[in-house]
Design a protein that fits this description.
The chain has three helices and ten strands, in the order H-H-H-E-E-E-E-E-E-E-E-E-E. It has 233 residues and is an alpha+beta fold.
Amino acid sequence: MFLLTLTVASLVIAALMSVMAWRMAVTERRRSQARVDGLAAEIHAGQAPSFQAIAYRQDEDLDLRSGASSPAGTERELFGPVHNAAPPSRFATRLTVGALVLVGALAATVAFPAFARRTPVQDPGIAAAPSPLELVELAEERDSDTITVRGVVRNPRSGTRMDELAAVVFLFGSDGAFITSGRAIVKSVSLGPGGESPFVVAIDGAKQVGRFRVSFRTDDRVVAHVDRRVDGK
C-alpha cells in the first residue's frame, strides 16, 4: 500500500513538473519570437538610402577608426551590430529530464521488488529434513508384570537410509504419570528407502501401565514418524 501511494504521488509530481517545464518552454519561445519580431520591425521601419554614382576622390577617403560616427542615423540602425536572441533557458529541459528519471526509478523499485528483497540461498551444508517414517502395524501383549509391544515400521521411498534405528516405548500410568521406558533395535539394521522392518520391545514392571507411546531414534537424534495403521489403533 505504501509503495502504491508513493508511486501515485511521484506520478502526480512528475506530471506537474512536466506541465511547468512545458509552459516555461512555451513562454521562452514566445519571448524569443517577440525579440526577433521587434528587431525585424526596427529594420523595416527605416528607409533604405538611395545609392547614386559619386565621383571618386582620394582625399575623401575616411580613416577606419573604431567608434567613428555613421554618416546617417538610418545607416547606423541598418548596419549596426545585431544582437542575437538569447538561447532558450535550459532549466525547463533539466526539470523535465529530472522528473522522468525520478518516475523511472520509482517505477523500477515497484516493478522489481526483487532488488529490495533478496531470495535466501540455502546453505548446501544444511541437509533437508528427511521424510518421516511410517508406523504401519502396532500391537501389545501383557504377561503378568511384562508388556511386549510389537509393530512394523516403514521407511518411505522419499526417505533416507536409517542405520541402527531403534524403537523406543514409553509407559504411562492411568493418571498420565510416566513410569518407565524400553528400547530395541529394529530387525533390519539398515533400513533403506521403501523398506519395512518389524520391531519388538519388551518391558518389565508394567502392572500399573495405563497407556504407552512409541517413538523411533538413531544414535544421535529422534526420527519423526506418522501413524499409517489402517485401524488407527
